[in-house]
Q: What sequence folds into this?
């Protein structure tokens, strides 16, 4: 499949009164047509800053690009001016935000908010934009679109607002859709509707999706590939099956162990002790070293290299070095996906 | 399951209504009846707006009930009582809140936050005793004695939630209402807090009412689970019973909507996807509140409110699909 976006060694920092916070450190990944790449990680792991950097929504200052590039359509987005970005945002790259309550404009009708992009990017007339708006609302499953298009965001429920936001993001058929925690603010039954909708729309339009989430259930449900972020770095990346059934990084093990499973009751959860590192003063070596049960001397001193265990799977962990002791993944990891349940 | 099944808390036809304007009343909780047994964790789940938090707060006595009653160890939580009796119930019932950023006073030190209850109830005679209690509590919840002189902003979300737990434990309660105690935390931190809650329950024989929308976590921590929809309880069962054989169509849909962290399972799963949104509790549907979204709705559902009854031992459900209807 064709590559549509490639992020190479991206580093983003924020200047604060205390020091420079290194929010994203040396992050690289590719995104292909038709695929959904999930970026998972805890709050402060740099996943949202990575996504916002692609859209150039990181306020600069205090933010700044320290290095790396974001290649889209053979051009480096990090070098674009604000004016040039305006013709890319909403047209080639769309974005869905976490909170549908605050990311729509409360003073504009839904129709107007959809039409905005169509009029600007596709030179549509107001009338054509209205007609297309009704089509889009129908596409995202909003009943009674002719009436709904004239309403304001406060007249929509949470799930409806998220649908409207998806309609806005998809209005100009973007090549890339960035969804930053699109279902976190929604209830489970509504979440199921929205995830279903995103999958169906991808089938129809072929849009590549970057899905930012902390919910591994959502990842398993929607993603094709996964990048696990921790302390501003991608610590492991692979296909969704590789990450869930053959994870190699102790942090990925920890994440999977922290999730309660519906079929085991009462067992203690495998919590990861401690808390994430302070990115104002990130550790010299592996960011996970302080919480890792398998930590070795090298981990604290040297940043681990990426070890490739398949064409798609890469893991930044010294345990995979041939000089390191052999460590088996903990037994709660469902290796190979053999223990099918549910 | 609770071993002895001694009832600690009895909730009978509990109602909490809010007047929104001259004509409309929002029935946030509309007739809940259930029991919480000594030493168990009762999980209360439902989507936003179903009334689960209002239920928790009314049970605690933070809201006056609009109808019905709550009996805690034989004494009523609501209604007129002497100051002394009120103080005694508030000591024995404590609460852990959802947002660890908003529920700790930013201008108080951790020591004073934790000791507030100790002071009010006069549980420490000397300054030294107070200090010792605070240190002991901090250590119980996995923090250090040095943390006691700091302010809440110096802590991470998980640590703040631990402070909230220490504050609840300070007065040695029997019963704790935990209202979404982990939903503001990261996954790896959630597991820490849940493990801590379980450990404390074992050590101190606590009884929990655990309110959450995350069903997998609720299943993990609870002995019994109640499912709420639009102010009503639709199903109560043991945690295994509920997940193995959900009876109410709403519970079935809710369970099938949880995405599981297992791609193979996710690919092969048949989902019940509910259409539409939860109706407004100001103007709820007639009959069964769920009928407007229910895939199995029948003619009777709009006419009669289904009775909440025991379909199987320890498994209660309010649905016309089960049992002969009463007219």
A:
């Amino acid at each position: 499949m064709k590559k549509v976006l490639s992020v190479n060694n991206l580093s983003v920092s924020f200047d604060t009164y205390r020091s420079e916070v290194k929010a994203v450190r040396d992050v690289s990944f590719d995104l292909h047509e038709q695929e959904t790449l999930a970026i998972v990680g805890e709050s402060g792991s740099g996943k949202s800053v990575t996504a916002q950097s692609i859209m150039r929504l990181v306020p600069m200052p205090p933010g700044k690009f320290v290095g790396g590039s974001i290649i889209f359509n053979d051009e480096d987005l990090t070098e674009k001016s604000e004016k040039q970005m305006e013709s890319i945002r909403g047209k080639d790259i769309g974005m869905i935000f976490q909170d549908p309550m605050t990311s729509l404009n409360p003073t504009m009708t839904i129709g107007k908010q959809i039409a905005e992009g169509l009029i600007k990017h596709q030179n549509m007339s107001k009338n054509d934009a209205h007609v297309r708006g009704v089509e889009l609302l129908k596409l995202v499953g909003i009943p009674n679109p002719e009436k709904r298009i004239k309403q304001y965001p406060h007249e929509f429920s949470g799930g409806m607002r998220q649908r409207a936001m998806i309609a806005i993001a998809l209005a100009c058929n973007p090549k890339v859709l960035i969804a930053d925690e699109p279902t976190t603010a929604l209830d489970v039954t509504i979440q199921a509707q929205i995830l279903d909708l995103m999958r169906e729309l991808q089938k129809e339009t072929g849009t590549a999706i970057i899905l930012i989430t902390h919910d591994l259930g959502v990842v398993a449900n929607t993603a094709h590939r996964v990048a696990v972020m921790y302390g501003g770095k991608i610590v492991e990346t692979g296909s969704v099956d590789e990450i869930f059934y053959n994870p190699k990084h102790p942090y990925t093990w920890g994440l999977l162990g922290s999730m309660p499973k519906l079929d085991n009751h009462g067992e203690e959860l495998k919590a990861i002790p401690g808390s994430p590192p302070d990115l104002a003063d990130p550790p010299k070596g592996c960011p996970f070293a302080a919480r890792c049960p398998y930590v070795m001397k090298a981990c604290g001193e040297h940043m681990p290299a990426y070890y490739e265990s398949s064409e798609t799977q890469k893991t930044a962990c010294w345990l995979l070095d041939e000089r390191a002791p052999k460590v088996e993944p903990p037994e709660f990891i469902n290796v190979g996906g053999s223990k099918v349940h549910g | 399951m609770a071993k002895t099944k001694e009832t600690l808390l009895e909730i009978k036809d509990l109602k909490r209504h809010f007047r929104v304007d001259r004509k409309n009343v929002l029935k946030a909780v509309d007739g809940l009846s259930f029991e919480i047994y000594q030493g168990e964790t009762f999980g209360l789940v439902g989507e936003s707006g179903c009334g689960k938090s209002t239920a928790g707060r009314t049970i605690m006595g933070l809201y006056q009930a609009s109808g019905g009653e709550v009996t805690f160890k034989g004494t009523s939580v609501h209604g007129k009582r002497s100051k002394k009796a009120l103080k005694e119930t508030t000591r024995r019932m404590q609460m852990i809140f959802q947002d660890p950023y908003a529920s700790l006073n930013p201008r108080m030190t951790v020591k004073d936050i934790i000791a507030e209850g100790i002071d009010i109830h006069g549980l420490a005679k000397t300054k030294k005793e107070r200090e010792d209690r605070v240190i002991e509590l901090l250590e119980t919840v996995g923090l250090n004695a040095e943390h006691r002189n700091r302010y809440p902003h110096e802590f991470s979300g998980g640590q703040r939630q631990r402070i909230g737990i220490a504050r609840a434990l300070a007065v040695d309660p029997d019963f704790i209402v935990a209202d979404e105690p982990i939903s503001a935390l990261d996954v790896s931190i959630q597991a820490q807090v849940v493990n801590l809650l379980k450990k404390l329950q074992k050590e101190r024989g606590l009884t929990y009412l655990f309110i959450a929308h995350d069903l997998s976590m609720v299943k993990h921590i609870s002995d019994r689970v109640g499912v709420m929809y639009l102010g009503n309880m639709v199903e109560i069962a043991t945690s295994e019973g509920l997940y193995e054989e959900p009876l109410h169509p709403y519970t079935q849909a809710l369970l099938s909507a949880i995405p599981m962290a297992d791609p193979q399972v996710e690919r092969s799963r048949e989902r019940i996807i509910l259409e539409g949104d939860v109706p407004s509790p100001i103007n709820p549907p007639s009959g069964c509140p769920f009928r407007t979204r229910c895939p199995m709705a029948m003619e009777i559902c709009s006419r009669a409110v289904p009775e909440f009854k025991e379909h199987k031992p320890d498994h209660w459900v309010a649905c016309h699909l089960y049992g002969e209807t009463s007219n």
Observations:
- The radius of gyration of chain B is 21 Å.
